[in-house]
Design goal:
2 copies of one chain form a homodimer. By secondary structure, chain A is an alpha/beta fold. Chain A has 3 domains: 6-49, lambda repressor-like DNA-binding domains (434 Repressor (Amino-terminal Domain)); 60-159 and 287-314, Rossmann fold, CATH 3.40.50.2300; 161-284, 3-Layer(aba) Sandwich (Rossmann fold). Chain A is built from 13 helices and 12 strands. Chain A has helices at residues 6-13, 17-24, 32-45, 51-58, 73-89, 103-113, 129-135, 161-174, 190-202, 217-229, 242-254, 272-276, 286-303, and strands at 63-69, 93-99, 119-123, 142-145, 155-159, 180-184, 208-212, 236-239, 264-266, 281-283, 310-313, 316-318. The first copy, chain A, has a 6-stranded parallel β-sheet with strand order 2-1-3-4-5-11, sandwiched between helices. A 4-stranded parallel β-sheet of chain A has the order 7-6-8-9, with helices on both faces. In chain A, helix 11 (242-254) links the parallel strand 8 and strand 9 (264-266). In chain A, helix 1 crosses helix 3 (32-45), helix 2 packs across helix 3 (32-45) and helix 8 (161-174) packs across helix 9 (190-202). The termini of chain A are far apart. At the A-B interface, helix 4, helix 5, strand 2, helix 6 and helix 11 of A face helix 4, helix 5, strand 2, helix 6 and helix 12 of B. Strand 2 of chain A pairs antiparallel with strand 2 of chain B, so a sheet runs across the interface. Chain A binds a DNA duplex through residues 5-7, 15-19, 21-22, 25, 28-31, 34, 49-59, 115.
DNA sequence: GCGGGCCATGTAACCGGTTACGCTGCCGGC
DNA sequence: GCCGGCAGCGTAACCGGTTACATGGCCCGC
């Protein structure tokens, strides 16, 4: 025995389905008496409108689809949290799908969303421009997050990695550091690529030492330990993310080097732990990025189409004791 | 101009909608010729089936609703990730909703899910038994996570906090510790309550010192610093979560105490950082908890109803150097 | 040669809502 | 007293799929 439908309510209240619909949705042209009868019948039957059917006839779902790659941990969680908050605030639900594998799965996920969502937020660092414009619906129904900068077909909200890196380098130079180690992230990661490129273009060959890791604490530790053991001299370490910076700090401490006096350390992301470790870093408000993407999308939906816009989120430099003693 | 519908495809392929449906769903009783015509027409029109309409007529959505409280960070993300992986594996989508405020919002979220999902995963530590059985659909369509143990109306998947705490205490005693500090979590948190109760029942008054924090690093640091300054003697610290354990370690280090020789430290949760800090802790596989909940739900859906089951997830003690020097 | 059965296909009802449109009855203005 | 307008309500079409049932053609066995 299934749940009650609007026709059951209509029968019980002795009115037509149209009146039930009007009454429950608070529309005009319904007498107070009818309204009351309907409300009573609905309550008695425990009637809950069938959102699926409603969407079908309204051609509107009040849901936003979110397509994410297989990101682990912090980033994934924060971005979803930000979207969730904003969705909740504006009365939308989030339909989540991950695409672990290649574009075949992405396509399947996209298809599964058809008719269940009003629009999409897609985070697809590994899809190229052609794939994106082929698979996605019109521009007004989708927003990309951290897609390659050259995508122009859809709105694209990105982190300004260049600005963040430049800010760190400027800060390190301002405090008199002249020989910086840069610990890069995994080369397949778009943010890692952008940060590395920014570092390369904002520093000169004689003031930098390049190392690389995979965004893990251990890889940061290993990279810096290796340089110390190799006898390299440097007065600053800039890791492409906070986790590697934490590893770097461990390595410095193990080698008996003082921070920041001997070596200043900076990271990128401002994970919650960075504050407790007093790590200078670049604050990327990931949740805000997600909230922003969703907000933009909903606004586009409600105000009708608009030109696709590429929006850069400028991160903020947070100076702490890992670079400035009395910060 | 909207997207193509099944009737458009039928018209273009010069067959009936029934044949299109059968062909695209790979059913029998369709000639190869028709199948090909339909496939061609669908491709030409860029036809994507309308999942919403499909669900309506099938009375099946292939989606699972997830209702979460306003949890921040790690826990939220891990549990969603675990569910997502499992959902993906079994061909389901996840519909996410948060209930920030009270039960009014929870009710609204539940209603919004009607007709869009086949079943629900509800994490509702603050809802009591009555509220749960009133608001939720039949038992076979919902699984709870970390609901109070006395809820019997629905399946309930919980972390076995008691077992985890007992394992830690047993371990600490086995390595000869006889005076333990317990740093409890915030009293409104269900896990904190259970862990505190377990600690109280598994230790005796003369071997424990109670302190409390709020699950943050800083609160763990403050609690232990306070005890040291007050001149308390102890040879072990057991924090109700890893974050506070990290704070405790900072405080011990600042006081010049050796770990584990002078004071052994243990936490709870096994956050990623615990491994790098070599912290003995209780591993709670949160993602696995989410995956398990989803898996159970889908199995119930597909095999028809079953008795509601309360499942306890036994966490695992992970011994590291914060308690055993050569671990 | 004829009837039964099966296969391919089409028609139309149905899922559970919304809503255009038509009808009735009442009111007020002339 | 008549008519236009509007409030209240109901009927039925529609959203875009699936599918029960009907139909017609063909093959086969007798």
């Amino acid at each position: 025995m299934g749940e009650a439908t609007i026709r059951d309510v209509a029968r019980k209240a002795q009115v037509s389905v149209a009146s039930v619909s009007r009454a429950l949705n608070g529309l005009d042209h319904v007498s107070e008496q009818t309204r009351a009868k309907v409300a009573a019948a609905a309550r008695d039957l425990g009637y809950v409108p069938h959102a699926g059917a409603r969407s079908l006839s309204l051609a509107r779902t009040n849901a936003i689809g979110v397509l994410l790659p297989d990101v682990h941990g912090e980033f994934f969680s924060e971005i979803v949290r930000g979207m969730d908050v904003e969705a909740n605030r504006r009365g939308y639900l989030l339909l989540l799908a991950n695409m672990h594998a290649g574009s075949a799965q992405a396509k399947a996920a996209l298809q599964a969303m058809r008719g269940r969502v009003d629009a999409l937020v897609v985070m697809a660092p590994h899809l190229d421009r052609a794939a994106i414009s082929r698979a996605l619906p019109q521009a007004s129904r989708a927003v990309l997050i951290n897609a390659p900068a050259n995508v122009r077909s859809h709105s694209n909200i990105r982190i300004d990695n260049h600005a963040g890196v430049r800010a760190v380098i400027k800060h390190l130079k301002a405090i008199g550091r002249s020989r910086m180690v840069y610990v890069g992230g995994p080369s397949h990661n778009l943010d890692a690529q952008e940060r590395a490129a920014a570092f390369a273009s904002a520093s000169s060959a004689d003031e930098r030492i390049l190392a690389s890791g995979d965004f893990s604490v251990e890889s940061g530790n290993a990279a810096v330990r290796g340089l110390i053991e190799a006898g390299e001299r440097f007065d600053a370490v800039f890791a492409a993310n906070d986790m590697m910076a934490i590893g770097a700090i461990q390595a410095l401490r193990a080698a008996g080097l003082r921070m920041p006096e001997d070596v200043a350390v900076a990271g990128f992301d401002d994970v919650p732990l960075a504050e407790h470790l007093e790590l200078t870093t670049v604050r990327v408000r990931i949740a805000e990025l997600g909230a922003r993407a969703l907000s933009r999308l909903i606004t586009m939906l409600e105000n009708g189409a608009a030109e696709p816009v590429s929006e850069l989120h400028s991160p903020e430099l947070v100076i702490r004791r890992s670079t400035v003693p009395n910060a």
